[in-house]
Structure formats: structure tokens, C-alpha cells
Design brief:
Helix content: over 70%
Shape: globular
Function: Involved in the import of queuosine (Q) precursors, required for Q precursor salvage.
Structural class: mainly alpha
Keywords: Cell inner membrane, Cell membrane, Membrane, Transmembrane, Transmembrane helix, Transport
Largest sheet: 2 strands, antiparallel
Protein name: Probable queuosine precursor transporter
Number of helices: 8
Strand order of the largest sheet: 1-2
Membrane topology: Multi-pass membrane protein
Radius of gyration: 18 Å
Family: Belongs to the vitamin uptake transporter (VUT/ECF) (TC 2.A.88) family. Q precursor transporter subfamily.
Order of helices and strands: HEEHHHHHHH
Distance between the termini: 24 Å
């Protein structure tokens, strides 16, 4: 008798994708990109994909499953940070080019405040995204998917920025301009990118589950 646990194909695929985005977001965040007058850390693109993925899972499989996905996301996030700490502590090979060695250390290094800020901001903002999205669905039904996803993303990304910047940099330097700039950039990107992306993800999920 086959007693293997069966999960929907969309949930399996989205879970793998979600874990990858959790790991790569911190690496991409080391580059700041210019989007017209806005400057934003490139990690926002991975975080927006996390938002879209968790919202799509909430739409297809419910709030509880989406929140479980967010909680499981702590595993690759924390493990990737611990691996970075270990790799940075291991001496580099003498044959490694000094410029490459120093660039790697600069890119992968971080302070405990930055790491804690990333973990706290991830957990709270992603849970908030699922909560707002699901609450709006409960009020509006299955209509206005683009609006529900956009509002949830905007509000959760504002909270994400406030938490991360405050935990990581408060007291180190003035953070007012950084907060305002990052929030504005994330609001604009959430409003522009999330609505079309959520239809793509939900449509793909339904196709996988046929």
C-alpha cells in the first residue's frame, strides 16, 4: 500500500522556488541598482518573488499552508547565514587571487545586527503579507487578485524595510533618508511588478495541479 505523502505539484514546485529565493536574496542585496531616480538593493527582486510565491500559495492552498511555507523558509535562510560564517572563517587558499578573496569577504560578510535584522524582517513581513492577502480574500472573495496581492506586498515591504534598517543600522548612522528611499522604491516596485506576477504564478500553479 502506498502511504507516501502526496502534495500538490504546485506546492512542491513553489516550495523549491521559495527556498532558492530566500537564499539568493541576501547575496543580491549587496548590489544597489538605479531605477530612474530610485536606488534600491537588488535583493528586493528576490523578496518580491517571495511575496508573490507566498500569496500564490495562499490563493491556491490556503493561509495555513502559506504560513507553513514562510516558517520553513527560516531553514534555508539560517543555514545559508551559518554556512557563510563558516566559509568566511576557513582560511582562503594561498592560490586564490587576493582581489577575488577580498571581494568575496566583502560581499558575504555581515554584522550580527544585519543578520538578525534580515531574519526578523523576513519572518514578520512575509507572515504579514500572507495575513493581509488572506484577510482581503476573506472580505472580497476570489476577485481582485491583483489588488489583494499589491496591497499585501506594499504594506509588508514597508514593514520589512522599517524592521531591517532599524535593527541593522539604527545608531550607526542617520537612517531617515535610507528608510524613506527604500520604502518609496519598494512601494513602486510592488505596485508595478506584483499584480502581473501574481496572475502568472497562480495560473502556473493551477496548470501544474490539473
Amino acid at each position: 500500500m502506498d502511504t507516501a505523502l502526496r502534495i500538490p505539484r504546485s506546492l512542491f514546485a513553489f516550495s523549491i522556488f521559495y527556498g532558492g529565493m530566500v537564499c539568493i536574496a541576501g547575496v543580491l542585496g549587496n548590489k544597489q541598482v538605479a531605477l530612474g531616480p530610485l536606488a534600491v538593493e537588488a535583493g528586493i527582486f528576490a523578496f518580491l518573488l517571495l511575496v508573490v510565491t507566498s500569496s500564490a500559495v495562499a490563493e491556491l492552498h490556503g493561509r495555513d499552508i502559506a504560513n507553513r511555507l514562510v516558517r520553513i523558509g527560516f531553514v534555508p535562510l539560517v543555514v545559508s547565514i551559518l554556512l557563510a560564517v563558516v566559509v568566511l572563517a576557513v582560511p582562503a587558499s594561498p592560490q586564490m587571487e587576493p582581489a577575488r578573496r577580498d571581494a568575496f569577504a566583502l560581499m558575504m560578510g555581515g554584522t550580527p545586527r544585519i543578520w538578525v535584522g534580515g531574519i526578523v524582517a523576513y519572518g514578520i513581513s512575509q507572515t504579514l503579507n500572507v495575513t493581509i492577502f488572506s484577510w482581503l480574500k476573506g472580505r472580497e472573495g476570489s476577485t481582485l487578485l491583483w489588488l489583494r496581492a499589491g496591497i499585501a506586498s506594499i504594506l509588508s515591504q514597508i514593514v520589512d524595510t522599517l524592521l531591517f534598517v532599524s535593527i541593522a543600522f539604527l545608531g550607526v548612522f542617520p537612517i531617515g533618508e535610507l528608510l524613506a528611499g527604500q520604502m518609496l522604491a519598494k512601494v513602486v516596485l510592488s505596485a508595478v511588478l506584483v499584480p502581473p506576477a501574481i496572475y502568472l504564478f497562480v495560473g502556473l500553479g493551477r496548470r501544474l495541479d490539473r
